Amino acid sequence: MAEMEGPATSEAMAQAMQTNPVVVRRLMAGLRYAGFVTSAKGHGGGWVLSCPLQDITLRDIYEALGAPTLLAVGNRVESPGCIVEQAVNRALTDAYQAAEEALLARLGEVTLAQLLAEFHERMVAGCHGHKEISHGDGSSGNDNDSHPGV
Q: Where is this region: Disordered (predicted)?
């Protein structure tokens, strides 16, 4: 979106991310509520960034999307009365909390501007393993002057 000449449609972003436009619209609604994007309806409408990429961190995005569960592992609650389960949960609670705090801290250090810069470095180095957003002009965006869906 940062490098597109106009608004990005949910359909174009969904195609680039290989998902459904409804999923994109839900995600974008959270980002709009946080003030990171705005939308315009009608012909030529779509989504545009509403603040500089250097002002948005991965943690900001995480929080704007509802702060989903970070770690797939966690305390077991299959048998709450089991004293072994209770002991294991008590022993691991601090470790899970520390891991989550460390991950959130790291997410807060990474800006979208940094990700865009790394993306460009990888493009120059020849790492083209991504889908691109169509620019609506019929071009696939596969030439060196293309503006990929970032």
A: 130-150
